[in-house]
Amino acid sequence: MTQAPTTSPPAIELRGIVKRFPGVVANDGVDLTVAPGTIHAIVGENGAGKSTLMKTLYGAHRPDEGEILIAGQHVTFKSPREAIARGIGMVFQHFMLADNLTVWENVVLGDEPGTKARLDRHEARTRLRDLGARYGLRVNPDTYVSELGVGDKQRVEILKVLYRGARIVILDEPTAVLVPQEVGELFTSLRSLTAEGVTIIFISHKLDEVRGVADDITVIRAGRTVGEVKPRDVTARELAQLMVGRELPKPIPRSDAPSETVALRLSDVTVAGVGDLPALDRVNFCVHHGEIIGVAGVEGNGQTELLDVIMGLRPLAGGSIELDGRSINDLSTRDRRDAGIGYIPEDRHKDGCVLSAPLWENVILGHQGSKPFSARGWIDRVAARRRTKDIIADYDVRTPSADVAAVALSGGNQQKLIVGREMTSGPAVLIAAHPTRGVDVGAQAAIWDYIRVARTNGLAVLLISADLEELIALSDTLIVMLRGGIVATLDPNTVSIADLGAHMTGAADGNDG
Amino acid sequence: MQTTWTKKVGDALLAPAIAVAAALVVSSFALLVSGHSPIAAYRAMGSFVASTDSVVTILNRGAPLYVVSLGVAIGFRMNLFNIGADGQYRLGALFAAAASSAYSLPRPLHILTIMLIAMAVGGAWAAIPGVLKVTRNVNEVVSTIMLNFVATGLSAYLLNNYMRNERVENVVETKSVPKSGQLPSLNGLIENFGFHFPRLTVLNGFLPVAMVVGIAFYVLIWRTRFGFDLRMTGASPFAARASGVKPARMIITTIVISGALAGLASTGFLLTDFIKYNETFPLGLPFTGIAVALLGKNHPAGIAAAAFAWSGIEQASRGLLDEKIPPEISRIMLGTLLMSSVIAFEVVRRRNLTNAVRLAGLQAVGRAAGGPLDTETQPPSPAAGATT
C-alpha cells in the first residue's frame, strides 16, 4: 500500500462544508483532508451526504458555507468545468458513454485534439495508449463501447477523466456495478494510479472493500464527519458502528401476537442477475397475517429484485411465491394487485406515480382493476376524487386540490399520497419499500401508526427500508440481506447496533479481509 | 391554482394562436418574396372558401381525415408511433371494395359490414408490427413504414390478379360498391331544415360516422379503464407497469385500434364519392393524418379543429389560382403551421411545467425542516422528476 508523503500540503482540504436544500441540510459541517497520492475512502449510509459532498468538490453546486482548498490554495468552483481545470475529475456510478462511438472517440469527446476544423485521430490514439500504458488501464482505443464489459467501460470513464488532466479522481461507488473479479482489477488499477501520484477519492458503503483498498477512511453520518480512521486501526464491526452510529430505538411493544396463518411465503426464490451471480439466491421467508417483517441491508444487495419478483415485475428463475397458500408464480402484476398485494415502490417518481397526471388519477393507479375505481371497465371518476380527498385529509397531503398534477407536489407529499393510496385499498399483504422516505417527521409518525393499526387488523407487511429507526420501530422480525441472500434473522427487541451493522456489511461472517 | 374552465380553454388555445400567427408571418414572407401581395392572397383564399360548395368539400374531405388522425392519435397517446396508416388504409379500402360486391344485405347492414371489413383488414395489417414489437422488440416506426411499401405492392398484386373487375378492360379497378352499401348523402336530411344545396353539391354521409368515432375516442380514452391504462402507459411506462398494466397486450390492442380506424377512414371515400378502388382513390390522407394528430394534440376536439382547418386550407388554396398565385403556397402555410405548432406546444408545456414546479418549490421551502437526510436518493427539487 502506498504511503502518503507527509511534506506536501494536502491534495484536498474541505473545511466546514454546509450544503442546504429546501427543507434538508445535506452537509452540516463536513471536514475532509486528503493526502496526495493516496486512496481516500468516504463511507456512510445511503443519504449520509456523501454524494452531495462530492458534487460540491466537483463544482456541480456551491456550498452554502465552508471552504475548499486544493493543494493548499483556496478555490471556488462555479461549474464542473472549473473543477476539471484544477485537475479534479469525477467518475459517476452510471456511465456516461456513447455506445456507438469507439473508446478513443468517447475519451476525446468534448476535448478533441487538433484544430477546430480537423480532428487529430492519430494524436488521440497515441495519447490514449500512453495514458493506458502509464496507469495500467489497458483498453483497445478502436473498440466500440457497446462491445465492452462493465469493467472496461469503467476503465474508459477513468481514462476520460485522466485525459483531461485530472490529478484527483473521485469515484462514486465504483464497485457497485462490478463482479468480484473486476473489483480486484479496479483496485490494482487504482494502486498504479496512486503510484503515479494521482489522488483517489473512493465513495462506498461496502466496508470490506474499503478496508482492503483505502489508505485513509473518513466516515460521514447525517451530513457530518464522525470519524477519520486508518483501515488497519479498525475492524469492520467498529467501522459499521461508526457508520450507523446512533443507539437503536426501542420497538414499541405490542400486546397481540401475529396470527399463525402465513400470508406470503417465499420458497427458494431465485432471480437471475448480471453474469453468473444470481441477484437473489434461494431466498426463504414467510410473512404471517398481522406481522411486519423488516428487511435490513445496504442498498443493492437484492432488495430491488425482491420487490420486483414479488410484484411480478421480474421473472422468477427458481422457487415459488405463495399468497395465502396459493402459488402466485404465474399471476400477472395486475392479478397480484387484485389478489390483495399493496405495493409502495422504491422509486416513487419512476414506479410510484405518474407525475404529469392529476392526483385523483394517481390514486387510481395500481387499483384501476378494482372497486371503487372501476366497474366493468369503466373508470369511476367521482369515487376516485372522493377517495383522493379522503387521502389528502387523512395522510396530510399538502396540495391545493385533487386536480393538480402530481409533479406539483413535493416528494414527501407524493409519498404520503402513495402510502395513502395503498393503505386505503385494504390490502391483505403490503410490500412497502421506504414508505416514509422524504416524509417529514410528523407525517412519518402518522404513517407508522397507520401501518401498525393495519397490522393489528391482520395486514401482513414486508418492509424494506434504509432507515434503521423505521425498521426497529415497526418490525416484528428483522431479516438482513447481503449479496442476494438472507444472512441473518434478528429480533428487533434485542439486536444491537453492532450486530446489525456487522450483518449488513458482511463483517459478521469474518470475510472482512 | 384552481383551474377554472375558462383558464383551461385559454391555455389550450394559446399555443395554436401563436402557431397560426407564426404561420401567417412565414407564408406572408414567402408570398412577398415571390412577388405577390399577401393580402390579396388571403382575400382570394377567404372568398373562395366562403361558398356552400367549398364548405361541403371541406367537410367531405375532413371527415375521413379526422378518423385516420384519431387512429394515429390513439397510438401517440401511449408513445406508439403507427406510421403505417397508409398501408392499413389502402388494404382496408381494397378489401372492403372487393368484398362489398360479393354479397348483398339490406342497406344499413351492408354499410356496417363493409366498414367492419375495412376495419378488420386495417387492424390485422397493423397487428403485424404490433406482434413484431411485442415478441421481437422491433421498433414500430421502422416496421410500419416498411409495411407501407409491402402494402402498396400487395394491393397492386391483389387488385391485378384477384380483385379486378374483369368486365372493365382499360382500367384496373374493383367492382363498384352496390347501391345498398353506399352511404346516403345528408342533403335530404338538411334540406328538411329549409337549407338548399347548389346543384351537384353533395354532403357525404360519412360526417356523422366521424362524429361518432370522435365521441367514442373521447369516452374510450378518458372514461374507461383501457383508456386509463393507455394514458398512464404513455405518460410513464414504468409506473404503468408497476400498476399492473400489461405492456404487450396494450401495444397490440392499441395498434390494432389504430389500424382499424385507418381502415374505417377509407370507407369515407369508398362508400361515398369513389365507390370503387382504383388508382384515382385518394391515398395521401393517412400521412396527413400524422400531422393532424400532432396539430390536434391527440385530443378528439383538437384533432377535429386541425382536420377541418387542414382540409380548409387545402380547399382555400384553390382560390389562389384566380389571382395567378401558385397554390403551392398553401403547402408552405401548412408546413409552417405544423412546425410552429410543435414548437409552440412545447414552449407552452414547459411554461406550465415551470409554473407547477415553482409552486412545488415554494411548498417545499415552507415545510418545517427536519425530514430525513435523504438527498442522495431523493433529489431536492421535484424538477428532477419533471424531466421525464
Characterise the protein shown here.
The complex is a heterodimer of chains A (513) and B (388). Chain A has helices at 50-57, 80-85, 103-108, 121-135, 150-163, 180-195, 207-213, 236-244, 303-311, 333-338, 348-352, 359-364, 381-394, 411-424, 441-456, 468-474, 497-505, and strands at residues 12-21, 24-34, 39-43, 65-70, 73-75, 88-91, 168-172, 199-204, 216-221, 224-229, 262-271, 280-288, 292-296, 318-323, 326-327, 341-344, 374-375, 378-379, 429-433, 460-464, 477-482, 485-490. Chain A has 513 residues and is of the alpha/beta class. Chain A has a six-stranded mixed beta sheet with strand order 6-7-8-3-9-10, sandwiched between helices. A six-stranded mixed beta sheet of chain A has the order 16-19-20-13-21-22, sandwiched between helices. A four-stranded antiparallel beta sheet of chain A has the order 2-1-4-5, covered by helices on one side. The mean pLDDT of chain A is 86. The model of chain B is unreliable at 361-388 (pLDDT under 50). Classes of the chains: A alpha/beta (513), B mainly alpha (388). Chains A and B meet through strand 2, helix 1, helix 10, helix 11 and strand 18 of A and helix 9, helix 10, helix 14 and helix 15 of B.
What kind of assembly state do the chains in view correspond to? heterodimer
Radius of gyration of chain B (CA) equals 24 Å
Judged by helices, strands and strand pairing, the structural class of chain A is alpha/beta
- What distance lies between the first and last C-alpha atoms of chain A, to the nearest angstrom? 15 Å
How many helix segments of chain A? 17
Helical residue percent band of chain B: over 70%
> Describe the biggest sheet of chain B?
none
Low-confidence stretches of chain A at least 5 residues in length (pLDDT < 50)? none
> Residue share in helices of chain A?
25-40%
Q: Beta-sheet strand percentage of chain B?
A: under 5%
How can the largest sheet of chain A be summarized? 6 strands, mixed
Alpha carbon gap, first and last residue of chain B: 23 Å
The low-confidence parts of chain B are 361-388
